[in-house]
């Protein structure tokens, strides 16, 4: 992942130094368990931890140099450890296979990455809740097909995002639980050369649960669900980003990204203030979703294992989590500093001569005795005049001048159907459902 879209805490999880440290802990904990079972000398486990207590520097280059010869990363690591620990290191990796180390390490990394992402979601949810309450009753136009529909509030838009990301949090918590499994089961997963108690011990020490049945690898349906969850979260980010981008269009301009002092919008046009952050989020969301299909295709491995999944996961593990971490933080900043323009929202609400109240008039006509077909015809024929005038005419006034309408509704009854507050009478109910307050 390029530094431009990376944050240090998440990146650190995927650094080679951290990976090798996790590998060592897995191997050392397994050696502890093997020593307790009498399979290897207790001195072997002690030698490993005694060396580790010196807080040794992980010589990534030295390990890479060994791998250049062995063409095997786990063997290269074990060789390097043996060079530093000495003779007792020969008891490491007894009965284990490389996937025991690799898969268990990946589980640890994905679990730790999940914890950071959950914290990111919590920060985003806090900001969405605050801004939603701030604009709980700020009137704005609801749009369907991009066309004015009926009034909503800007707070409801933010409450929708809050509810969606709350669901995403629940999905991620479940995905974290599902991905955080340990496999120390040996070649083809039969425990032929290693006791299942070793797996249990390592799992407890690494904060994982045991994989019930692991062939030679942890089943990749777990990983597929994890990355699919990240993909759904990315789509939610894009939904909010796209909304903001539309609201910032010059013709709409109901909200816009914060434009900081000294910021430049265009190298050619000094007047520009572009929605660059939300456009960036749209692009990043595409990248995260792009990792979902390879994760799904990793599920179907040959027999007890192959390594067609390995190269894929070396990409998508770091890239998907690092990108999503950055994107969640960026969206949180956008919402926190979002500039909201209630006056422009009201102006846009009034843009089309009251057309947004057409349904209320239709319902009133049906309740006054008109068939739905006749009521629709009466409202639509007046509404189309307003539409064709680009909102210069008033739907209310046209309805008052229509004898077929006034035969059923008085002027006062017509005017009552244009009360904006009517549309917001259940906002409290929705907020209570979303925020529980």
Output the keywords:
437 residues; mainly alpha; two-stranded antiparallel ribbon; two-stranded parallel ribbon; 19 helices; 6 strands; 63% helix
Summarize the structure.
With 437 residues, the protein is mainly alpha-helical. The protein has helices at residues 8-13, 16-36, 42-52, 60-70, 73-85, 98-134, 154-179, 196-206, 221-247, 276-290, 292-297, 308-337, 342-349, 358-367, 372-388, 395-400, 403-406, 411-416, 427-435; strands at 139-144, 147-153, 181-182, 209-210, 255-256, 339-340.
Could you walk me through the main structural features you see in this protein, from its secondary elements to its overall organization?
Strand 3, helix 8 and strand 4 form a beta-alpha-beta unit. It is elongated and about 100 Å long. It is mainly alpha-helical and 437 residues long. Helix 6 packs parallel to helix 12. It is 63% helix and 5% strand.
- What is the global morphology? elongated
DSSP, total strands? 6
Q: What's the end-to-end separation, in Å?
A: 41 Å
Spans of at least 5 consecutive residues with low confidence: none
Structural class by sheet pairing and helices: mainly alpha
> Widest sheet: strand order?
1-2
Q: Into which percent range does the helicity of residues fall?
A: 55-70%
Our Rg estimate from Cα atoms comes to 30 Å
Topology order in helix (H) and strand (E) letters:
HHHHHHEEHEHEHEHHHEHHHHHHH
Mean pLDDT, rounded to whole units?
Answer: 96
Main pleated sheet: 2 strands, antiparallel
By DSSP (H or I, 4+ residues per run), the number of helices equals 19
- Proportion of residues in extended strands: under 5%
């Amino acid at each position: 992942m390029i530094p431009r879209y990376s944050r240090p805490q998440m990146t650190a999880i995927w650094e080679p130094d951290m990976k090798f440290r996790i590998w060592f802990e897995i191997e050392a904990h397994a050696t502890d368990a093997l020593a307790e079972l009498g399979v290897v000398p207790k001195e072997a486990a002690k030698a490993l931890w005694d060396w580790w207590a010196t807080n040794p520097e992980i010589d990534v280059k030295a390990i890479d140099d060994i791998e250049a010869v062995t063409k095997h990363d786990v063997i290269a690591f074990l060789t390097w450890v043996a060079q530093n620990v000495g003779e007792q290191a020969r008891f490491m990796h007894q009965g284990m296979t490389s996937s025991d180390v690799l898969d268990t390490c990946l589980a640890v990394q994905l679990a730790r990455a999940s914890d950071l992402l959950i914290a990111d979601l919590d920060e985003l949810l806090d900001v969405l809740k605050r801004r939603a309450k701030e604009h709980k009753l700020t009137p704005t136009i609801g749009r369907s097909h991009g066309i004015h529909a009926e009034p909503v509030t800007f707070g409801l838009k933010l409450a929708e995002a809050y509810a969606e990301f709350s669901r995403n949090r629940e999905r991620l918590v479940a995905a974290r639980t599902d991905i955080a499994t340990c496999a120390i089961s040996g070649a083809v997963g039969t425990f032929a050369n290693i006791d299942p108690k070793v797996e249990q011990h390592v799992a407890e020490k690494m904060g994982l649960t045991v994989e019930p049945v692991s062939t030679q690898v942890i089943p990749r349906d777990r990983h597929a669900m994890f990355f699919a969850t990240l993909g759904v979260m990315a789509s939610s980010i894009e939904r909010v980003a796209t909304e903001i981008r539309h609201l910032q269009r010059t013709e709409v301009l109901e909200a816009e990204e914060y434009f900081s002092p000294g910021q430049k919008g265009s190298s050619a046009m000094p007047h520009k203030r572009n929605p660059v952050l939300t456009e960036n989020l749209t692009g990043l969301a595409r990248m995260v979703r792009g990792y979902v299909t390879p994760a799904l295709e990793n599920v179907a491995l040959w027999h007890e294992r192959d390594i067609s999944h390995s190269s894929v996961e070396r990409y998508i593990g770091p890239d998907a989590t690092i990108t999503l971490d950055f994107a969640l933080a960026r969206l949180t900043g956008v919402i926190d500093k979002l500039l909201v323009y209630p006056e422009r929202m009201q102006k846009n609400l009034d843009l089309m001569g009251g057309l947004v109240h057409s349904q209320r008039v239709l319902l009133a006509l049906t309740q006054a005795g008109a068939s739905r077909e006749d009521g629709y015809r009466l409202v639509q024929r007046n509404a189309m005049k307003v539409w064709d005038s680009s909102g210069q005419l008033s739907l209310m006034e046209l309805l008052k001048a229509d004898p077929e309408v006034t035969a059923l509704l008085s002027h006062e009854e017509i005017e009552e159907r244009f009360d904006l507050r009517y549309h917001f009478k259940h906002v409290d109910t929705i907020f209570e459902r979303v925020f529980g307050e």
